């Protein structure tokens, strides 16, 4: 049989159940997004759709991409990248808004 | 059996007695690459946002021409492919090689399915006279043309990523079948999975921006 020399780096595998549960949540959120778009909420339609997209992506990052179970350094890394991105978006939006 | 082969660099890190891959380093490298991908798409998201701000009304009307059903179905296809990707890793970690192969094959099949649906969608739109530089778009206000330029650019680049992802996962599939990726050494499959999930995340944002302006 194969040698087992490389097992030290991680704990137990994530269960199938958690992944299926997250998938159900993602599908439900997609359905909600599609339904909400049908209701006329004027400017809020986009805001709600984007908030739902943020929730969905955080589920994917944390569970599917395993960040929740990784060492602290990965969480810091992702948080810094997310922070930098939001600064870029914020500054660009401010520029476009005040330039008009 | 022979020992699992190590990259040259890993052999000289001072862990000669217990050689093992730098799993953290491999994953961190993948994350770094994903950040550059994120920046690539972010530039386009920024441009989209600015155009949308300047041409709010036109973007609103143009978005009615995209097919929400295609978009919704494709979202669900891609989310499901992310699920099977994650399941494939768990299956391999539990030593169920062929279950992992089955899940991974499903992921690739779903990815290809996404592209087929995308093809049908683009064909429909091109048939309706909507494509970059088409005479039909020039009859509308400028915002129309910009919306569809962004639409074809962003969904096109995303589709290209799905195609590359399918290729990458096929290589991983061959590695698993040939025993080069094993229960004890799943890090390459995990890294490929990270790439696949990123593609999913980008689509999660493309979906409301192009399909859900009522």
Describe the structure.
- The complex is a heterodimer of chains A (100) and B (214).
- Chain A has 100 residues and is mainly alpha-helical.
- Chain A folds into 2 domains: 16-69; 70-100.
- Helix content of chain A is 72%, strand content 0%.
- Chain A has helices at residues 16-38, 44-64, 72-99.
- In chain A, helix 1 (16-38) packs antiparallel against helix 2.
- The longest helix of chain A has 28 residues, at 72-99.
- Chain A is flat and about 55 Å long.
- Chain A starts with 15 loop residues before the first helix and ends with a helix.
- The relative contact order of chain A is 0.08.
- Residues 1-9 of chain A have low confidence and may be disordered.
- Chain B has a single domain (22-211), classed as Four Helix Bundle (Hemerythrin (Met), subunit A) (Up-down Bundle).
- Chain B has helices at 8-11, 23-54, 56-62, 68-93, 97-127, 135-139, 142-177, 187-211.
- Chain B is mainly α and 214 residues long.
- In chain B, 78% of the residues lie in helices and 0% in strands.
- Classes of the chains: A mainly alpha (100), B mainly alpha (214).
Would you summarize the structure shown here?
Chain A has 100 residues and is mainly alpha-helical. Chain A is 72% helix and 0% strand.
Task: Walk me through the topology.
The complex is a heterodimer of chains A (100) and B (214).
Chain A: H1 16-38, H2 44-64, H3 72-99
Helix pairs in contact in A: 1-2
Chain B: H1 8-11, H2 23-54, H3 56-62, H4 68-93, H5 97-127, H6 135-139, H7 142-177, H8 187-211
Helix pairs in contact in B: 2-3, 2-7, 2-8, 3-7, 4-5, 4-8, 5-7, 7-8
Number of strands of chain B: 0
**Biggest β-sheet strands, sense, barrel of chain A:** none
Judging from the principal axes of the Cα atoms, what is the shape of chain A?
flat
Largest sheet of chain B: none
**Annotation field: number of helices of chain B:** 8
Q: Give the SSE order of chain B as H and E letters.
A: HHHHHHHH
Low-pLDDT parts of chain B are: 9-18
Write out the CATH superfamily name of chain B.
Cytochrome c oxidase, subunit III, four-helix bundle
Mean pLDDT of chain B: 90
- Terminal-residue CA separation of chain B: 61 Å
Instruction: Count the E strands of chain A.
Output: 0
Q: Bin the helical content of chain A.
A: over 70%
- Whole-angstrom Rg of chain A: 19 Å
**Number of helix segments of chain A?**
3
Please report which band the strand proportion of chain B falls in: under 5%, 5-15%, 15-25%, 25-35%, 35-45% or over 45%.
under 5%
């Amino acid at each position: 049989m194969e040698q087992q020399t490389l097992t030290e780096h991680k704990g137990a595998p994530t269960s199938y159940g958690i992944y299926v549960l997250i998938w159900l949540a993602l599908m439900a959120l997609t359905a909600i997004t599609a339904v909400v778009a049908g209701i006329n909420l004027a400017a809020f339609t986009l805001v709600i759709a984007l908030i739902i997209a943020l929730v969905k992506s955080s589920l994917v990052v944390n569970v599917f991409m395993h960040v929740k179970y990784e060492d602290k350094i990965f969480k810091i890394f992702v948080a810094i990248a997310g922070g930098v991105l939001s600064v870029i978006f914020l500054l660009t939006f401010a520029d476009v808004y005040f330039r008009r | 059996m022979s020992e699992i082969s190590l990259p040259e660099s890993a052999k000289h890190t001072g862990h000669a007695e217990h050689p093992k891959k730098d799993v953290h380093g491999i994953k961190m490298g993948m994350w770094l690459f994903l950040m550059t991908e994120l920046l690539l798409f972010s530039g386009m998201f920024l441009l989209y946002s600015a155009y949308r701000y300047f041409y709010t009304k036109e973007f609103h009307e143009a978005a009615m021409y995209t097919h929400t059903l295609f978009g919704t179905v494709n979202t669900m296809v891609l989310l499901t492919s992310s699920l099977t990707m994650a399941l494939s890793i768990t299956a391999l970690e539990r030593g169920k090689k062929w279950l992992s192969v089955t899940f991974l094959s499903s992921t690739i099949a779903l990815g290809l399915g996404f592209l087929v649906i995308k093809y049908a969608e683009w064909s429909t739109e091109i048939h309706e006279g909507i494509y970059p530089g088409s005479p039909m778009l020039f009859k509308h206000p400028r915002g129309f043309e910009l919306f569809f330029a962004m639409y074809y650019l962003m969904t096109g680049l995303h589709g290209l990523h799905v195609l590359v992802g399918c290729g990458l996962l096929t290589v991983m599939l061959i590695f698993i079948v040939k025993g080069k990726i094993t229960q004890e050494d799943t890090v390459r499959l995990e890294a490929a999975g990270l790439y696949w999930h990123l593609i999913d995340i980008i689509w999660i944002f493309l979906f409301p921006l192009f399909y859900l302006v009522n």
